Model the fold of this input.
Amino acid sequence: MNKSFMVVLALMAALTSGANAAVSANDLPGNTVWYMHADLQAMRDTESGRQIYAWFEDEVIEEVSEELGIDLNKEINVVTAFSDSRNGAAMIIEGPISKATEEKMLEMAMDKTEVDTRQHKGMSYYFMGDDESAESQGDEPFEDFEEASYSSFAIKGKIIIAGREEQLKELLDNKGRIVGGGEFDDALFVISADKSFVQAGVRTDGLSDDDDDGWESNILRNTEQAALLVSEVSGMIAVEAQLVSTDPKMAQGIAGIINGLIALQSFSTDIPADVKALIANTKVEVEGNVLSINAVIDPDLVVSILNH
Done:
């Protein structure tokens, strides 16, 4: 796949318009493996989010915008990416995307790889790559896009990118909207808030290394799902992570490990006092087989941590 497209994808994944609503479990396909939803407009419009976005703009956006010739600040508001076990990965980029930007992205793609223009019910889309790489599905987020992808600008205000042709056609049929699976017992867990910046989640099956006996792999082996939310609460950055474990006892055990790590950090002489205070105020709670980790952080501290 065109490397400049990969720069845009990596940019969106690093973050964390008309679609400024957070996603819920009902908005995702029933067989979703992972998802990421980033509301860049919400970051730009809120006090706490602006500070983080300003850092991101200085460190990443300006350079990428200059390289690609695309003003990401003005043209990208919301990014939603997900992968389902049937159709693979897809990404929907929303905002006031100009015709010039569409043409620029196609031009960059044509410079790097073969681009085949196709039609679906009167809507144009593009296959980028070669036939041997098509329809492959990677194990990692965004890996589906590395060798080949299907893209379309046919829906106004949206760039749709998919790793498989059927996924793209389905999204075109639904005007770029993800068709959710509704409520059911095995739905992928989603955390939401009134002012969400980033939401993400994953089924953890297969993420652990069977040959690794470290605590990280042990936690993954005993976890079914994980979810993350970054949002604003009263001008502060709220971070919440939840792990759905295999059983309540395992959730209590994982909580014990995390609390132990927090306690160890309190004795470190290498950690600044404000970061120590943040760690000390991190809350770890268990309800049934769900482990929750919550922290409320001053935006200035977040930027300081990012800078270092």
Observations:
- The chain is about 35% helix and 30% strand.
